Amino acid sequence: xxxxxxxxxxxxxxxxxxxxxxxxxxxxxxxxxxxxxxxxxxxxxxxxxxxxxxxxxxxxxxxxxxxxxxxxxxxxxxxxxxxxxxxxxxxxxxxxxxxx
Length: 100
Hints:
Strand content: under 5%
Structural class: mainly alpha
Distance between the termini: 33 Å
C-alpha cells in the first residue's frame, strides 16, 4: 500500500471514530459543529479533533477530501467519462453526519 493511501485510510478511521463518539458526546459534537462558523473552519475543526485526542491534521483532512473527489474520476478506468455535477466538501459531509 502506498504511503499516501495509508494516510487516507488512517484519517478515514479517525473520522469514523470521531463521528461515532461525537454522536454520543454532546460537548464534543457541539464543539465540532461550532467550528463551521470559524474564519478557518478546517483548521478549527482539526484543532478540536486534536484537543480530544484524534490525530486529524489539516493537510491530511484536505488530502482525504481530495482523494474522495479524485476517486470519482478513477471510477471509469482511469478517466471521468461523465460530467461531475459537483464536488463534495469533506467538512460539510462530516457536519451532515454529525447532525444525522
